Amino acid sequence: MAKPVCLTFAASALVLAGCQTSHSHRAGGQATPTTAAGAGQKGGSQLWAENCIRCHNVRSPSSYNDAEWDVAMHHMRVRASLTAQEHKAILEFLKSAN
Amino acid sequence: MRAVTTAGLLTLALVGSTGLAQQAAAPDKYVTREEHEKVLKELEAIKARLKVAEEKTPAAAKETEQALDEMDKELKSVKSLATSVLPGSTKQLLTGYAFAGYTDRKGEKSNFEAGFNPILLWKLSDRLFFEGELELELSRNAEGGGETEVELEYANLSYIASDYATVQAGKFLAPFGTFAQRLHPAWINKLPDFPLPFGHDGIAPNSEIGFQISGGAPVGPTKFNYAAYVSNGPRLNTGMDEPEEAGMLHFDNNVDISNNKALGTRVGFLPIPQLELGYSFQYAKIGEDVDASAYLHGVDLGYVRDSQLLKGALDLRGQWVWSTVDDLTYDPTGALGFGPLSFDNKRDGGYVQLAYRPAKVNQPFIKNLEAVGRWDTLNRPDDAPMGVDEQRWTVGLNYWFSPSTVVKAAYQFGDRSDRMNGQQDVNAFLVQAAFGF
After folding, report:
1. Which B residues, 103 through 122, put their C-beta within 8 Å of a C-beta on chain A?
2. Residue B38 is part of which domain span?
3. Helix, strand, coil fractions of chain A, as percent rounded to 5
4. Whether the predicted interface score ipTM is above 0.90
5. Helix B33-85 and helix A66-79: axis angle, to 10°?
6. Judged by CB atoms within 8 Å, which residues 252-271 of B form the interface with A?
7. Are B418 and B347 found together in one domain?
8. E strands within B141-238?
9. Which of B93, B226, B296, B341 could crosslink B121 through cysteines, CB 3.0-4.6 Å?
10. Whether B220 and A38 lie within 8 Å, measured CB to CB
11. pLDDT attached to residue B242
């Protein structure tokens, strides 16, 4: 039982990674340039769009004021293992868009 | 004849009077050269002024825009200053979730249920943070009476030690797989119930009491994250209290039964931002009066894609857990009434779930619908007292009122089988409304 399941996981991961590459090629410039740039070059809104949908639906930036985002983003930094740079850029974006 | 003469006279009179009138208006119809020049000059002056005004307008508009922008910024900073000095709202946030549900399962009594999980978050400094969650749920006690269960879901202090490492101490959600730590809250979980390995009598920990270090780091275009912890770990049920649960691990080891602590870790890898693959491991000494260890392994996969091409969001999750407990003889003297009993104490289980929400379709009702399908299973040792194997297919339809308010309806095709009772059908209809606040 264990082995086939493990293999299925690995296989589906590979298939998905494959799909993704072909999609981002096709998307060209119009979509988010995901794999091209390292996290260091990504802007706050892109980091927000990429990271904040990984576990749950995104809540609108306007759902909190600056002080509330300070607290929620600290929470998410720890929960989602974000780096200091990601945390700062996303927080700045949320504060500019709320 | 008379009439003709009258008409002729009248015509003459009319012609005469117009002629006179023309003569009288003549001096007003002409302007002098001076007057003409004056008007021309005035026209030139007006034209010049108009030109200046026209040239000035875009600059003035720009100035106004800049001034408005500055005012906007000023207003924002004043607003955030004002909210930050309001008592109580500075560094704390009261959040959490609530849910109401209904389950109608074959072979069981149908039941309404409700739960409320308040969470207090407290940012003590830029590095120090507290998170605490209570779980209030309705249940029935041993005498059959109603009861409200209060659980401390988590309570811990965390300290950001560096850009890539955070230390946490207290009770925290277990970084074993991703369901417990990231997906179980009712407003996040896409189905009304939990997958078998993570549910009631599951085989994976939901929380740990101890301390952990965790963080993440980019490596080129990819990303890693990690967590490692030392905790009380699980406790082995030797059949002393509940003979039917002999051999099972209990993860609510609030007060450790031994000096041996559990060690655990999870490593996650994101080759692309949408895909995460994880591996978890936990080792623990588990016996109070027996010398036995438990080894837990887990793999997890998460793929979330929100795209125009798909006209919405695709959410794929999968996890598998293996649990191995050293061989032991339970009730060796037979004093508990079911022994001596020994069996190969290996369990495994997992789930795969796929959800799709056409969020980018321009239809207000359709874009809030989400279809979910899940397959989950749990295999227990055949010779164990509760050696039940379970397997289920669940299909669900959700309606999202907001990003954290949802109503879920699902139908479950479930099978339970064990040596004593053979195969049983435990199909169920489940509904849940959940609200994250």
Report:
1. 121-122
2. 6-82
3. 70, 0, 30
4. no
5. 50
6. 268, 271
7. yes
8. 146-162, 165-173, 207-219, 222-231, 235-236
9. B93
10. yes
11. 85
Please provide the DSSP assignment of B295-328 as one string.
Answer: EEEEEEEEEEEEETTTTEEEEEEEEEEEEEE---
Measuring CA to CA, which residue among B436, B365, B349 is closest to residue B399?
B365
Whether residue A39 is predicted with pLDDT greater than 90 in this model: the reply is no
Query: Are B91 and A60 an interchain contact pair (Cβ–Cβ within 8 Å)?
Result: no
Nearest-Cα distance to chain A for B306, in Å, is 8
- In a domain? residue B326: yes
Q: What is the mean pLDDT of residues B266-288?
A: 95
Token pair in block for residue B134: 């209570």
pTM: 0.79
B28 part of contact set with chain A, CB < 8 Å? no
The Cα B195–Cα B298 span in angstroms is 14
Same domain, B259 and B337: yes
For the cut 80, the answer to whether the pLDDT of residue B77 exceeds it is: no
Q: Are strands B165-173 and B262-272 parallel, antiparallel or unpaired?
A: unpaired
On chain B, the residues whose CB falls within 8 A of the CB of A95 are 80
Report pLDDT digits (tens) over B415-432.
Answer: 999 888 889 999 999 999
B223 shares its domain with B244: yes
Q: Which fold has domain A40-98?
A: Cytochrome Bc1 Complex; Chain D, domain 2 (1.10.760)
Any A CB within 8 A of B403 CB: yes
Specify the CATH number for the domain of residue B109.
Answer: 2.40.160.10
For A5, which of B268, B306, B320 is closest by C-beta distance? B320
Task: Note whether residue B87 is domain-resident.
Answer: no
Cα dihedral B355, B360, B365, B366 in deg (nearest 10): -50
